[in-house]
Specification:
CATH class of the largest domain: Alpha Beta
CATH architecture of the largest domain: 3-Layer(aba) Sandwich
Distance between the termini: 60 Å
Strand order of the largest sheet: 3-2-1-4-5-10-11
Bound molecules: adenosine-5'-diphosphate, 6-O-phosphono-beta-D-fructofuranose
Structural class: alpha/beta
């Protein structure tokens, strides 16, 4: 028989993502509508271990849906990777009467949720990461805002790059995944898109491409480089030396994680947060919320973590053809 749920907790973990606040708001308001009490756990699993736990009412989450970051704060917590840490986390939940937790974060955070579930605390994961690198879902909260922020920044770099007839390497985030790079590469009309999943590390191909484009009269050359490849500054030096064309590197960095969430991020976060509160209140555990083929649905965490995701071969092929 499913455990009776009276109080649920919510935490954000790992890298923050625009839309996390909308997800927190949805968990709180849908949970309250379902008749349970809500506790906010600050600073991810670290805050749980430090017992940084607050009561949340409907009014505590007003005026946050439009804000980037996370009102609960977030952290990376190495102690929670240990069995002792996980056991201590579960005991703290019991002490505070928390029957279940919604964990908003990436797949690292899901592993923490899986561990808590094994310790008898019901857990539900909500995909919150700008990287889009969670296999069981076509959408992760924060991705849309991040790519739009990056796209605007890349347009700006392109203006100055064209004026100076320079080559620009622009590095975008994504940990080991190339989704932000692929989307921005296509949307910004980049001449080269370097994805960790596909790049062959043959810089001579890029150099030839730059020289040929210049001969054909192109005044700029934009290379989108994914964080998983990195080394943009040294790459710029080598390309400039080989081509004789001024080459600059811009690392967009943390600006991609901030800012007001787009409508898409607010909407997905709201539905996913509410969905997580619903299934948690139904007594489900060790599940994660996802979005596939137009539907919001949930998966077993163990199965979700075992799934694989890769860049679409067709999308990559199109990105290469359009960049020529
Ligand atoms: P993300 O959730 O964005 O993938 P991380 O990989 O940094 O970010 O994970 C966030 C946090 O989740 C970690 O700091 C840690 O507290 C917890 N976590 C990650 N991996 C595990 C694991 N194998 N077991 C338990 N907790 C984990
Ligand atoms: O997972 C989101 C992300 O921004 C990645 O794109 C990046 O690799 C990582 O977090 C950076 O993490 P930190 O905030 O610990 O530097």
């Amino acid at each position: 028989m499913a455990k009776e749920i009276k109080t649920i907790g919510v935490l954000t973990s790992g890298g923050d993502a625009p839309g996390m606040n909308a997800a927190i708001r949805a968990v709180v308001r849908k949970g309250i509508a379902n008749g349970v009490k809500i506790k906010g756990i600050k600073k991810g699993y670290q805050g749980l271990l430090n017992e940084e736990i607050i009561d949340l009412e409907k009014q505590n989450v007003s005026d946050i849906i439009q804000r980037g970051g996370t009102i609960l704060g977030t952290a990376r917590c190495s102690e929670f990777r240990t069995l002792e840490g996980q056991h201590a986390g579960a005991e703290i939940c019991k002490k505070h009467g928390i029957d279940g937790i919604v964990v908003i974060g990436g797949d690292g955070s899901y592993k923490g949720a899986q561990a808590l579930s094994k310790q008898g605390i019901n857990t539900i994961g909500v995909p919150g990461t700008i990287d889009l690198d969670i296999a069981c879902t076509e959408y992760t909260i924060g991705f849309d805002t991040a790519i739009n922020t990056a796209m605007d920044a890349i347009d700006k770099v392109r203006d100055t790059s064209s004026s100076h007839e320079r080559c620009s390497i622009i590095e975008v985030m994504g940990r080991d995944a190339g989704y932000i790079a692929l989307w921005c590469g296509v949307a910004n009309g980049a001449e080269d898109i370097l994805l960790p999943e596909k790049y062959d590390y043959n810089e001579q191909n890029i150099i030839n491409n730059i020289i040929n484009n210049r001969k054909r009269g192109k005044t700029h050359h934009i290379i989108i480089n994914a964080e998983g490849i990195g080394h943009s500054t040294s790459m710029a030096r080598r390309i400039e030396a080989a081509t004789g064309i001024e080459t600059r590197a811009t690392i967009l960095g943390y600006m991609q994680r901030g800012g007001n969430p787009t409508c898409k991020d607010r909407f997905y976060a709201s539905i996913m947060g509410a969905y997580a509160a619903d299934i948690l209140c139904q007594g489900k555990t060790n599940r994660v919320v996802g979005y596939q083929h137009g539907e919001f649905l949930d998966f077993d965490i163990d199965e979700a973590l075992a799934m694989k995701k890769d860049i679409s071969e067709y999308q990559y092929e199109v990105s290469r053809i359009l960049s020529m």
